[in-house]
């Protein structure tokens, strides 16, 4: 694999990792809101935050899977 293609793939990998980190940060913020709701209950907001938490968690999983697959693709191209 030529160096330019490898560099571009590494940049993409870093972007994916940044997206994953952002999603994990969102999960953390949602968890803070959920924790705050113990002191100031609001059933509607709690339901919304639980749904948002699940979606953000699913996104983290999907991005982690994409990173793993992309890393394998890079490794295969390096070995070729």
TrEMBL record:
<keyword id="KW-0175">Coiled coil</keyword>
<feature type="coiled-coil region">
    <location>
        <begin position="53"/>
        <end position="80"/>
    </location>
</feature>
<protein>
    <submittedName>
        <fullName>Uncharacterized protein</fullName>
    </submittedName>
</protein>
